[in-house]
TrEMBL record:
The lineage of its organism: Bacteria, Pseudomonadati, Pseudomonadota, Gammaproteobacteria, Methylococcales. Zn(2+) 1 binds at residues 650, 652, 665, 674, 735. This is 5-methyltetrahydropteroyltriglutamate--homocysteine methyltransferase. 5-methyltetrahydropteroyltri-L-glutamate binds at residues 16-19, 121, 126, 524-525, 570, 614. GO terms for molecular function: 5-methyltetrahydropteroyltriglutamate-homocysteine S-methyltransferase activity; zinc ion binding. Binds 1 zinc ion per subunit. Its cofactor is Zn(2+).
Amino acid sequence: MTKIHNLGFPRIGAKRELKFALESYWNGESSRNELETFGKQLRRRHWQAQSGLDWVPVGDFAFYDQVLDMSFTLGNLPERVRDFHGDALDNYFRVARGRSAQSAPEAAACCSGVAAGEMTKWFDTNYHYIVPEFTAATEFKLDASRLLEQLAEAKAQGIAAKPVIIGPVTYLWLGKAKDDSYKLALLPKLLPVYAELLEALANAGVEWVQIDEPILVTELDAVWQNAFHTAYQHLSDCQVKLLLATYFGQLAENLGLAANLPVAGLHVDAINGRDDVEALIAQWPADKVLSLGVINGRNIWKTDLNAVLDSLEPIAQQLGERLWLAPSCSLLHVPVDLDNEQKLDAEIKSWLAFAKQKLGELRVLATALNQGRDAVKAELDANRAAIEARRNSARVNNPAVKAALADITPQLARRKSSYAERALKQAALLKLPKFPTTTIGSFPQTSEIRLARSQFKSGKLDEASYKDAMRGEISRCVREQEALGLDVFVHGEAERNDMVEYFGEQLDGYAFSQAGWVQSYGSRCVKPPILFGDISRPRPMTVEWIGYAQSLTDKPMKGMLTGPVTILNWSFVRDDQPRSVTCKQLALAIRAEVLDLEKAGIGVIQIDEAALREGLPLRQSQWQAYLDWAVESFRITTGGVADETQIHTHMCYSEFNDIIAAIADMDADAITIETSRSDMELLDAFEHFNYPNGIGPGVYDIHSPNIPSEQHIVALMCKAAERIPAEQLWVNPDCGLKTRQWHEVIPALTQMVAAAKTLRTTLGRSAT
Ligand SMILES: Nc1nc2c(c(=O)[nH]1)N[C@@H](CNc1ccc(C(=O)N[C@@H](CCC(=O)N[C@@H](CCC(=O)N[C@@H](CCC(=O)O)C(=O)O)C(=O)O)C(=O)O)cc1)CN2
Ligand SMILES: [Zn+2]
């Protein structure tokens, strides 16, 4: 009998219930008790949605982040929050979100101002986790209470619980040594706590524990490989069975290592690691479970069940009881329930599966394998029909787009002149001061803006009134920038729900959901649009808004677009052609928009590529191929403009050292980056590379409500000027301001503009 299980279920709730519960608790509108009770209800609901599986994950629920949960389980709290006197959950949120001294007057002095834990991307996904912090002196101490309570809840509900934890080697790999010590040296201290945790789970009656070690799909040097031997040898005599789970990629050279560790079972990603499966089966030990992740946990397409069964049937014959099936990874990365979509085009909807539907597919596969395909004939026939309909649909294929793609020449991706020549012409036209100031695009997305949009979408507000409201926001934004004295303006992005979804909604080849929410971090969610077909731009997407904004001011208004690589990486994309092809189709659409903006008199155009780095393959050996087509796609968007048109790009969350050549190759006239939290260290890469074009190193952290001081900004810019010639420097925040409030933005930008003026009188004269 083939068994089925799940690695993790989306916890935010089908209608973002957890988001609203959290925010109401944080705002003081509900009690801790209410929040805890709500968490219980949500877990119950999610376990019920997984009924019929042989094993259901427990411990995948987190109020903020599963990595932060693990840090608490291991007693690894940052030093700065250890003296907290209040409730553990409040301390957990303090690490997650930080707390400014001003915002916590009620707390004793020792419990007030605390910096938030650093957040970073979870592998190649759009999910962000809280980075564990280590020092050489870090000690671990088990707190299994969260897991044991959730296990007891599951048990009381008759759930076949399989606790999920992050494995010790991946846990160390995900963290950061704050004192630059060697974090792997902590392994001997960490392992006894893991052993104790497994013992506690065994005592609670647990049979299987899923222990996640996704770093096995990355390139590991000998010491990290060795850490796996040490760790799993140490844990090999525990009383529970360990299912070592890997996902997001191929084991490749780590296959032998993963297959031979002393654990009771191994889960592999049979979608992204498809090429491992044959080799694994060939050498599979007689006493081990092999779990194949055959349902894609990263996208929203229906699985071709008949094709999967063709390949699984012989494997099931061979492995018998030892074969388990699951989604490729946790379903955290897909929306909860397709049944909630009322407006999705029926044809496209018939091609899709969200989390609940994916588990339904798993049940069909198990029945087909265990009882024969006839037992689920109707389901398999319907699935075949849907797969074929999608494959043959005229809506997927657009010959004109294919022809335009075939016509791409290297010329298309090349500006007419070199940066040096362009810079002279742009300077003559724009007449900007030294250290020009600008912002990254968005201004506060107020609840009035969101409410207006929500009413427009539900038909309560007509289009004309909605547009009026947005124009009102844009003109407010222009007025504020005039008053602040910024140099290059933005329109503020009021009309955009999200920088990617907004473009998806306007491009042909895209569908979008009403409630397809996916957690990005904490209570923040995104609704990735669904790219199902060849991409084209039926009409200009931003020209009216940007043109309106420009009409209100004599200052240059920066046109604001999202780049093709970022649109690709933050959408659910088709799986029937290479990503590079889809990306170039997006590039042609954005190129047309760039040219329309230029024609409308917009002289500065920013094309955001915030997700360029995130799209890097997990294995470095595949980086160059990705960077080649990603950079070319960006250059296609800009290659058609006149020398006088100034192209900006923006990237946040990026480490640049190892991709600086590709960044330079993008050849934007100016790039704005996030640097304030790293104290300008991220500029090292640009300095060593002698990066020739304009750079705006972010001068303050927009994730924090704190207001930066003029002196602090001047000091940061002086640091920047030690690395980069002053005439190349711009002054701007780290990222867009959409998550901030106006009362935070105005004082912060006031300080920034004052700092730029000071810099002009001090550094400005000596610099040239
Ligand atoms: N796609 C994408 N990925 C990204 C980022 C990004 O900006 N976009 N940034 C980074 C992550 N940072 C993020 C920062 C903020 C939010 C964010 O604020 N998300 C919003 C949702 C944004 C959105 O789509 N809003 C819609 C829907 C608004 C809404 O909730 N409306 C209410 C009613 C209005 C109200 O009362 O507020 C409803 O429909 O019920 C809109 O503006 O139209 C949220 O979680 O709250 C998400 C990610 C990395 N990945
Ligand atoms: Zn950004």
